[in-house]
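Before relying on records like the one below, remember that each one covers exactly one chain. Contacts with other chains, cofactors or solvent are not represented anywhere in the record.
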Amino acid sequence: MANNIMSASCPSRIVLRRIGARWTVFIVNALEHGPMRFTALATRIQGITPKVLVETLRSLEEDGLISRTVFDENPPHVEYELTELGRSLLVPLRAVREWAEEHVPAVLAARAALRPTDAT
């Protein structure tokens, strides 16, 4: 039986929820060029709180999109990296990012058209 995304019971919805989660796009894009430590990710992704970063990284690891490597050093450190599955997500995310960058003026104009201006 083929997946039907419009069906409430379709398992594909789990994947779409992960991809559509607020910070997933930013984390996947940040990891595009190789592994990063937590603090580097937090610095690169402006506006994300440490708590949300931890939660999202755990979810992405659970879904097989990133791997977490703990280095037994003093002090110990952890690096996050896209898995092969996670890297495959870069192509569609790049298309969405390019669409957003190209169409942001039209979206902002549409928003402005619906908001009444202050008459002074």
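The first helix runs from residue 12 to 20.
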